[in-house]
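Researcher: Structure for this, please.
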Amino acid sequence: METASSSSAVPELAGASATLRRNRILSSKLYVDVPLSKVPLIYSTSYDIAFLGIEKLHPFDSSKWGRICKFLIKEGVLDWSRIVEPLEASKDDLLVVHSEAYLSSLKSSLTVSIIIEVPPVAILPNCLVQHKVLYPFRKQVGGSILAAKLAIERGWAINVGGGFHHCSAEKGGGFCAYADISLCIHFAFVRLNISRVMIIDLDAHQGNGHEIDFSDDRRVYILDIYNSGIYPFDLEARRYIDQKVELLSGTKTNEYLEQLDKALEVAGNNFNPELVVYNAGTDILDGDPLGRLKVSPEGVSIRDEKVFRFARERNVPLLMLTSGGYMKSSAQVIADSIINLSGKKLIDLDSPLRRK
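Model: Predicted structure, token format:
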């Protein structure tokens, strides 16, 4: 038989958990002040994963993030001194979303090997796995969290990394060990005084991690356009998508962009966000072995331009995460898209100080 005291314990526990989460967010050091001489493009050389060639056993290009920046610098639209370097997310930062039990599970190399889908990692000492795999991921998490602050301050921000949309509070998978999307949104709720966030997830795969995390949170509206015939086949998480567009393998550029136009119109009519989190995976590219869609490189640039225009027309800050993409060409495609956004005046890669 349930007593009055036991029935009241649940909201009390929930209240205590919310207070603890808030205190962790308020005490975090990740929201650094960024000088105006920098542009809101976030990257660290620590993002890139390389150890003994084992990273090549997964189709993901784990040097993609650095190659994006090198392409931008080579094209003369950016220089290293104006890129923002984030801090590493600490254990307390990660506990804002993740449980102690989940974080402890990452002390098992076997667990990490399953999450990142590279079986030989299971036999490596965990100290090496922490340094060579999880530390780069934690730096990218720090970048995603800082990107929300910069987006609110500058109107836009790009984390040249992040977008680990298969990870939820209690479970990693699909090369995603930390839930950076959920984390950056919870930080934004507390530190940026906002209460309405739209996730536009255009990676080829369903974003089941953030969908599980925000399943009962009406402050978050999720638009997810994905190939329904590929990983993760998470039917439970699909129930929590506010607006889903399920594509078939082989969907081509024109059809993809038509579906996107319709979806953005519906989303704009249904929800009025104060921040857009854009998960801009390039695994929609024709030839990507995992995404299985047939969108051209030019189609990716048009897609990104449409999402940035959607936010600009509504005067809503937007942060972009680069997420999935399993071909070597992805880095160049992302760099070209960023250059296109700059050329269309949807982002400004010139700092205010340089313009004076």
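Researcher: Any notable elements?
Model: The chain has a mean pLDDT of 93. The domain at 48-355 is CATH 3.40.800.20 (Arginase; Chain A).
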